[in-house]
TrEMBL record:
The keyword Signal applies. Residues 1-20 form the signal peptide. Residues 29-143 form the TNase-like domain. It comes from Leptolyngbya boryana NIES-2135. SMART domains: SNc (SM00318). The keyword S-adenosyl-L-methionine does not apply. The lineage of its organism: Bacteria, Bacillati, Cyanobacteriota, Cyanophyceae, Leptolyngbyales. This is TNase-like domain-containing protein.
Length: 156
């Protein structure tokens, strides 16, 4: 093809996975690592938060750490505009993305505050934030818990 713009458009039609998707707007929090903007589900890249029904144990008592992670994310976002950028979709057709409020990375914020773990199977991007949260005993790190990926496997 002689025209680079036509060639680029043709490539994007044939290879939609190569396209980045950006969503911006008011976000609804589905759970500690999933949002929805404009009827599009978004799975937060590189992190895994406790499931909504998941409990952790603090001083011998169960507490709803999955629900707490969801509420922490809801409180952080409030009515602010969220921007999510990603390139891939997961097996549930959710956009896998890094989401921000202004310049603040929400994925990193969740891990840094102990409401999610770095999901090393997919990315090591948030390991430093996880290490800091663990040392400071923030969020779920103040208790004992099963990593969300193990909890899901045991509770299918």
């Amino acid at each position: 093809m002689k025209h680079p713009i036509i060639a680029a458009a043709f490539f994007m039609l044939l290879c939609p996975i190569a396209q980045a998707a950006d969503l911006k707007g008011t976000a609804s929090v589905i759970d500690g690592d999933t949002l929805e903007i404009h009827d599009q589900r978004i799975r937060l890249h590189g992190i895994d938060a406790p499931e909504g029904r998941q409990t952790c144990t603090l001083k011998g008592k169960a507490w709803r750490c999955g629900q707490a992670a969801t509420l922490a994310l809801q409180e952080k976002i409030g009515n602010q505009t969220v921007t999510c950028s990603g390139k891939k979709r997961d097996r549930h057709q959710r956009l896998v993305a890094i989401c921000t409020i202004g310049r603040e990375d929400l994925n990193g914020w969740l891990v840094a505050n102990g409401w999610a773990l770095a999901y090393r199977h997919y990315s090591k991007q948030y390991v430093p934030q996880e290490n800091q949260a663990r040392q400071a005993r923030l969020g779920i790190w103040s208790s004992t818990f099963t990593p969300p990926w193990e909890w899901r496997q045991a509770n299918r």
